[in-house]
Specification:
Elements lengths: L7 E10 L2 E11 L2 E6 L6 H8 L7 E6 L8 H4 L2 E4 L11 H11 L4 H14 L15 H13 L5 E5 L7 H16 L3 E5 L3 H7 L2 E6 L2 E6 L1 H7 L5 E6 L3 H8 L5 E7 L2 E6 L2 H15 L5 E4 L4 H8 L2
Helix pairs in contact: 3-4, 4-5, 9-10
C-alpha cells in the first residue's frame, strides 16, 4: 500500500486525558474496504476516531491518514469524511442548504456545492425530503444527512460513528448496503457500532477494543479460531447421525458429541480438523449432511470470551 493510498495507521498510539488513559499503545492499520471498530462504552472507540479525524493529538505514538499526520493538516483532512454520532442541525435550514453551505466552506463553487449536495442526498435516500428543514427530520433521516455530508466531497477515507443508529430495519439494510458499496469502491471505511451482528454484516475485518487496549483484530472466524481455550460448538444437520457421530468422536480435539433435533452438536478444540473429518466422513460413510453451523462463531461470542 502506497503512502497516499486510502488508509489509516496507528503506531503505538496512547492518549491521556489528565490522569485518565483513553487509549493505550494501540497499533492498527486499515486499508481500502470496510473495517469495524467494536467495544463497550469507555473502550476507546471515540478517542481512536477523534485521533484519526485530527480532532485530537496523540500523547504518544503516531497517527497517519493516507500517509500523513491529520492533526492541524487541512489539506489531508480534505480526504476524510466523518459521520459523527451527535446531531448538529442548523435551525430551519433544509438538508440541501446545509450540505451546500458545508461544501462551500470546503472550497467548492456555489454551483458545484449545490450539485454535490443534491447527489449525496439522493444517494442516501433523501431525494424526496432534501428541501425540508433538517430539524423536522426523524432520527433515522438525520443519520442519512450526516452520512450524506460525510461523502458529498468524495473522500478517500470515511470514519462513521454509529452510522445506523436510529434507523428502522429496512433503513439499516439500505444504508448498510451503501456502506459496503463505498468500501467496494476502494475507500477506506471505518465503522463503529455497539451492535455486534451489525458490524459483522458490514465489515469483513474487525478491531475489538476494551479499556483502551486492542483485544483482537482480524476476521471474526480468525479471531474465534485463535481462542483455543474456548471450544467451538458446531451443529451438524443429518438424518443419520449415528455413523457420523462415531467418526467425529475419533477426531483430535473433539470433547463431546450430543444428539439434537435433526442432527448432532459437537464441541471441539480443533475446528479445522473437525470440518475436514465432517467432509471426509460424509463421503466415505455416505452420510447426508444438510448443514454445518458454528453455533458461537460470531462477534457476540468472541467478545464475551475475550472480556471474561
Amino acid at each position: 500500500m502506497t503512502a497516499s493510498a486510502p488508509s489509516i495507521h496507528l503506531d503505538g498510539v496512547s492518549k491521556w486525558y489528565g490522569e485518565v488513559l483513553g487509549l493505550n499503545e494501540v497499533t492498527a492499520a486499515f486499508g481500502p474496504g470496510v473495517s469495524g471498530l467494536l467495544g463497550p462504552n469507555g473502550a476507546g472507540k471515540s478517542t481512536l476516531m477523534k485521533l484519526v479525524c485530527g480532532m485530537l493529538k496523540p500523547s504518544l505514538g503516531r497517527v497517519l491518514l493516507c500517509g500523513q499526520t491529520p492533526f492541524n493538516r487541512p489539506a489531508i483532512m480534505a480526504r476524510l469524511g466523518h459521520c459523527p454520532e451527535a446531531d448538529a442541525a442548523y435551525p430551519n435550514a433544509s438538508a440541501v442548504d446545509v450540505l451546500t453551505y458545508l461544501l462551500r466552506l470546503s472550497g467548492f463553487t456555489s454551483h458545484e456545492a449545490r450539485q454535490r449536495a443534491n447527489q449525496a442526498l439522493d444517494r442516501v435516500g433523501l431525494a424526496d425530503a432534501k428541501q425540508r428543514a433538517v430539524t423536522g427530520y426523524s432520527k433515522g433521516m438525520r443519520q442519512r444527512v450526516k452520512l450524506a455530508q460525510a461523502l458529498a466531497h468524495e473522500p478517500d477515507v470515511l470514519v462513521l460513528d454509529e452510522p445506523l443508529n436510529g434507523l428502522d430495519p429496512p433503513g439499516r439494510r439500505e444504508l448498510g448496503a451503501l456502506i459496503r458499496e463505498l468500501g467496494d469502491e476502494g475507500r477506506c471505511v471505518l465503522v463503529s457500532s455497539h451492535i455486534l451482528h451489525e458490524v459483522e454484516d458490514l465489515a469483513p475485518r474487525v478491531l475489538l477494543l476494551n479499556t483502551g487496549r486492542v483485544l483482537a483484530e482480524g476476521t471474526v472466524a480468525q479471531i474465534r479460531r485463535e481462542l483455543s481455550e474456548h471450544p467451538l460448538v458446531v451443529r451438524i444437520g443429518t438424518p443419520t447421525p449415528r455413523p457420523l457421530a462415531a467418526r467425529l468422536l475419533e477426531v483430535q480435539g473433539v470433547i463431546r458429541v450430543e444428539w439434537i433435533e435433526d442432527g448432532i452438536e459437537v464441541l471441539s478444540r480443533s475446528p479445522d480438523l473437525l470440518f475436514d473429518r465432517i467432509a471426509s466422513a460424509s463421503e466415505e460413510e455416505g452420510v447426508t449432511v444438510s448443514s454445518v453451523t458454528p453455533a458461537d462463531e460470531d462477534l457476540e461470542a468472541v467478545f464475551r470470551y475475550l472480556t471474561r
